[in-house]
Specification:
heterodimer; A: 461 residues; alpha/beta; Transferase(Phosphotransferase), domain 1; Rossmann fold; seven-stranded mixed beta sheet; four-stranded antiparallel beta sheet; 17 helices; 15 strands; 16% strand; B: 74 residues; mainly alpha; 2 helices; 58% helix; 0% strand
């Protein structure tokens, strides 16, 4: 007996199950007619062939009988390597996801099908490539029907992007808190009048906010809502308009903010080469299917790990600029790297319905290895996490990996301590090695250069 | 297109004067439904105008950018 994924309950026409290295999608009686119409028209195949939607095939006969209730159809999909959420994405990732969603909708409309919702959680990333994962969102289109997912699209895609682009405010903390995105009423209240001088903002944010508030005040009869018709050409124009508008959105400062990165760090070339060798040795011996790079910066060591044998990497950083560079770099090279935002002292929690709809960071599948370079001092000194607890968390992420330890003589640590009292007598190399040794075998340790940082490779038993 | 003068008047009134906050329960998408016909019609008009301008420019042999972009206003 396999249990349904706790995030797949919202649409009663189906549920999703994780089985080993694949995803099974049960389609129940309620969704049968729509699904069969979609199948018959070949829409899913067309969307999959265009790379917009994750692959699907009928599961082997007989498997459906083992499920309770028994589904009318059962699909099998390849597993997404690592599930991520829109509140962990960079601006460019959310923008790419929004454009994918609109392209998929427009493509479906060409065959006279539409999308019954517009949730950003239906978009996932394989490396840097967004892909749509909910096959039951595609339903037959009826001429004149309104865009059911309009408000959801605005809340989960357009509004966070606008807040980022127009106000320079990262929406992710807000997004993570609300889970459902940013309401037009809220966004309209924080946009300036100049931001509103655009048809897209005026229509989708300002007017929608006003209409929403107006409808709350007055009694909206069901028949009035039902009487609203939206001709197909208007829907297409709306989607095309949003697509072109969102394609043109940029972060304040434009592309130049991310493109002129020149490796600013306290390391000389020789020490960096030694560090690359150390990471390559670990990745080469472990050959991880999935690796975490905690504090990836623009992805230099992610690149090294991939070249040495890591198959796929989730690259985390606290700095959105670094993540943008990382996303841009691996988008170009098409390597399997998913950059995600992480505050190591406050990783994404389990949340949503019953605190299980959206999984916590630590509960999204098996991680084979990790590297944490130039990170531990930010946790232990920057955030006052006792060193043993910081080591415990890092080693808990993956059974094998590499941790770098800059001691108090290190220029970056001195910077952290410059403006505060040193209340960290236990932040020493000896204590670090002892904490690692208590939790795992130290496979190798090394000093990078004569007076440089300590780096260790560990293996949990 | 199913848009009456009443719709356009409502759009104008809502845009210009706004409404005070209210917190009663309601299907959360009602506001979106009410305005879609108008947004759709305007978006359709804009798209048509841009395609038209594109054709005009092509006729006179001028290079044009993205046909459907409405970012020129930003």
């Amino acid at each position: 007996m396999i249990n349904p994924d706790p995030g797949s309950f919202r649409d009663p026409s189906g549920r999703v199950f994780i089985q080993d290295d694949r995803v099974l999608r049960a389609i129940y009686e309620m969704g049968r007619d729509n699904f069969e119409a979609v199948q018959k028209a070949g829409v899913l195949d067309a969307l999959i062939a265009k790379g917009l939607m994750v692959e699907a095939e009928a599961a082997e006969p007989g498997l459906a009988d083992t499920l309770e209730p028994k589904p009318a159809h059962l699909l099998s999909h390849p597993l997404i390597p690592f599930i991520s959420y829109p509140y962990e994405w960079t601006f460019s990732q959310l923008k790419a996801a929004a454009i994918l969603h609109l392209e998929l909708h427009l493509e479906a409309l060409r065959s006279n099908f539409t999308l019954c919702d517009a949730t950003a959680y239906n978009v996932q990333f394989r490396g840097t490539e967004p892909v749509f994962i909910d096959h039951l969102s595609v339903v037959p289109y009826e001429e004149g029907e309104i865009w059911a997912g309009h408000r959801q699209f605005c809340m989960q895609f357009l509004n966070p992007l606008l807040l980022w682009a127009k106000r320079g405010v990262v929406p992710n903390s807000w997004y993570r808190g609300s889970v459902e995105g940013i309401a037009p009423e809220d966004l309209a209240a924080v946009l300036g009048w100049r931001d509103k001088l655009s048809f897209t903002v005026l229509a989708h944010v300002v007017t929608q906010a006003k209409a929403h508030k107006h409808a709350l005040k007055t009694e909206t009869k069901e028949k009035i809502v039902k009487a609203h018709k939206l001709p197909k050409r208007s829907l297409v124009a709306m989607l095309e308009g949003l697509k072109s508008y969102i394609s043109g959105l940029e972060l304040p400062g434009g592309r130049s903010v991310w493109s002129d990165y020149a490796g600013d760090n306290s390391y000389n070339a020789e020490k960096r080469a030694e560090k690359h060798d150390f990471v390559a040795a670990m990745a080469g011996s472990v050959q991880p299917d999935m690796m975490f790079d905690i504090g990836c910066n623009s992805g230099d060591f992610t690149q090294t790990a991939l070249e040495a044998g890591a198959k796929s990497v989730v690259a985390f950083d606290f700095d959105y600029g670094a993540l943008e560079r990382c996303y841009s770099r691996f988008s170009q090279s098409k390597l399997s790297v998913l950059p995600l935002w992480l505050d190591a002292a406050n990783p994404s929690p389990a949340q949503g319905w019953a605190n299980s709809e959206r999984a916590s960071l630590g509960d999204r599948g098996k991680i084979d290895a990790m590297v944490a370079l130039a990170v531990i001092h930010h946790i232990a000194i920057g955030r006052n996490v006792p060193l043993d607890m910081a080591v415990d968390w890092l080693i808990g992420l993956a059974p094998q990996g590499v941790i770098e330890f800059p001691n108090k003589d290190d220029v970056m640590v001195r910077k952290l301590l410059a403006s505060r009292k040193d209340i960290f007598p236990d932040y020493t190399e000896e204590a670090f090695l002892q904490h690692v040794g208590a939790r795992a075998e130290i496979v190798e340790q090394k000093k990078l250069g004569e007076d440089g940082r300590l780096i260790v490779q560990y293996r949990r038993s | 297109m199913g848009i009456s003068e009443r719709h356009i008047a409502a759009f104008a009134v809502l845009t210009i004067f706004g409404a005070a906050p209210a917190f009663a329960y309601l299907d959360p998408a009602t506001g979106s439904i009410i305005i879609q016909a108008v947004i759709g019609a305007v978006a359709g008009g804009l798209l048509y105008a841009k395609l038209f301008m594109h054709k005009v420019r092509s006729f006179f042999g001028r290079k044009t950018g993205d046909v459907a972009s409405d970012n020129t206003e930003n």
